[in-house]
Each structure stands twice: as structure tokens, then as C-alpha cells.
Amino acid sequence: MKLIGMLDSPYVRRVAISLDVLGVHFEHDAVSVFSTFEKFRAINPVVKAPTLVCDDGEVLMDSSLILQYVEARTAHRRSLWSADPMERQHEFRAVGLALAACEKSVQIIYERNLRPKQAQYEPWMERVTGQLLAAYAGLEEEVKRRQAAFATAHTQASISTGTAWQFTQSVLAPIVPAAKHPGLAELSARLEETPEFLKYPPVGPGV
User: How are beta strands 59-61 and 51-53 bridged, if at all?
Assistant: First the structure.
């Protein structure tokens, strides 16, 4: 299998770290959806990161679907999710909040950096910023309340939350101050020192 995309994308990094924790062998091809658009399009005409090229050449996309596929095909049936239904419900909430935070962060970055300033619509930015802050407020609560789900780097709750927080802090720290999210800041600092996170540093060209 080959993972396509830059590790400064929280979605790509989320998949890379998850595959490593699951013990799934893969190659990583650092192709940008911006600076190497045509190369990416030759692999996946939709040009969506992450893209996973399966062993038979079929192309998958969307980080959550890629991870669902990988867990389904692993012979040893390892999982980054709890086997307990109620615990998994809590983990789903945390990961949903993390992915929402990623989505809103990306929307703000695109609006600021790709749309001409005279065309930017401030009410929309205020709405998206409010959604971003709500996602991280909810995630801060989850980190404080569900300590078991975030105890190691080997849960999807930890991986998704850690990659989301690092990404937002790298590009929108003034909007989402770490001082107001001590649980997330502590979790991120701890995760970024683990072998799995160190192996896939968030490097890339950015937007």
C-alpha cells in the first residue's frame, strides 16, 4: 500500500500514525495537492489527500474510510478503538470533534490564504471560527473526562486529537490559544514525544 499526501495535513498524518501503530506496512509518497497538483492528479484525479493506493492499484480516499478499510483487512484484527460499545461511543465523539476542528481550521486557512481579501466574507469567518472554538471546547472536556481514551498514542482518540491540535496550533494559534486548552496542550506535548508521532513529523509546504 502507498499513502499519498503531505504530513502537514492532519488527515494524512492521522492515517500515517494509525497505520504505524496498527503494524501495517506502507510506503509514503509526499505529494502536495498544491505544489505538485498534476502529479497528484495522475495518481487520483480527485486530488484529495490522503489518498491510499491499495495493493491491487485501487485508489481510496477520506482518512476515516481508509482507516476503516485498513482495520478490516488486518489479519491480526488489531484496532485503535475500544471493544466496549459505550467506550467506543465516547471515542467516536472525541474523534468527531477532532475532525470537525480540522475541517474548520482548513476552511479558515483557505479563506484567508486562497481567497482575495476583497472577496472574503467576515460573517462567514465569524461563523466558522465559532464552530472551531466550540469543537475545541468540547474536545478539551473530553480529554479531561475520558482519560483512559487518551492514555497512550495507541488509540484513535489520541491520534486524531493530537494531529488536529498540532495542526491548528501551527496555523491558528492566536485564534485557539493553548492557555485556554491546558488538557489539549498537555496531551499534544506528550504525544509529540512518542515514537509514532516523531516518526511522522508534520512537515510540508502548507497552503
Answer: antiparallel
User: Residues 6 or more apart from 9 whose CB is under 8 A from it?
Assistant: 49, 50, 167, 204
Q: What is the DSSP annotation of 29-92?
A: E---TTTTHHHHHHH-TT--SSEEE-TTS-EEE-HHHHHHHHHHH-TT---SS-SSHHHHHHHH
- Residues 5-16: pLDDT tens digits? 999 999 999 999
Of 131, 140, 135, the closest CA to residue 181 belongs to 140
Q: What is the grid cell recorded at 195?
A: 515514537
d(CA 17, CA 41) in angstroms, rounded, equals: 24
* Stated pTM of the model: 0.95
Q: What is the phi/psi pair of residue 130, to 5°?
A: -60, -40
Minimum mean pLDDT range among 130-144, 172-186, 193-207: 193-207
DSSP summary character for residue 115 = S
Grid cell in block for residue 86: 459505550
Residue type, 12: V
Co-location of 44 and 126 in the same domain: no
**206 part of a folded domain:** no
CATH code for the domain of 136: 1.20.1050.10
DSSP state of 199: H
